[in-house]
Specification:
Elements: H1 2-9, E1 17-18, E2 24-26, E3 32-34, E4 37-38, E5 49-52, H2 57-61, H3 65-76, E6 80-83, H4 88-93
Parallel strand pairs: 1-4, 5-6
Antiparallel strand pairs: 2-3
Length: 101
């Protein structure tokens, strides 16, 4: 949540991508985060970066093939792929950390 707010404060055009299971998620401090788009409706070619949040969300996100495809496609296109805290689970599940030491 904080990273999303900081990106917006810096002037970045952002949107929240969800799995399709909910229209809104709650941060660990109870703040609501509204989903703007569903992962299977986002093409990596139309974005500049992916920031995967931390907390327990990545453990659930990595179970959705569309999320993994978006992360993998963005990485393959040379886009910035960032992960906070437990987001490494998504990056590993997407297969983009192989051969990276």
């Amino acid at each position: 949540m904080v990273s999303l707010l900081r990106l917006r404060e810096a002037g970045a055009e952002t949107f929240v991508v969800g799995t399709g299971s909910k229209e809104e998620y709650t941060s660990k401090y109870g703040h609501p985060v509204k989903v703007d788009r569903v992962a299977d409706q986002v093409n990596a070619a139309e974005i500049d970066a992916v920031v995967v949040p931390g907390g327990y969300a990545p453990d659930k996100m990595r179970r959705y093939p569309a999320v993994l495809k978006l992360v993998r496609d963005a990485f393959d296109q040379g886009k910035v792929v960032a992960g906070i805290c437990h987001a490494g689970w998504v990056l590993v599940s997407a297969g983009i950390l192989k051969a990276r030491g």
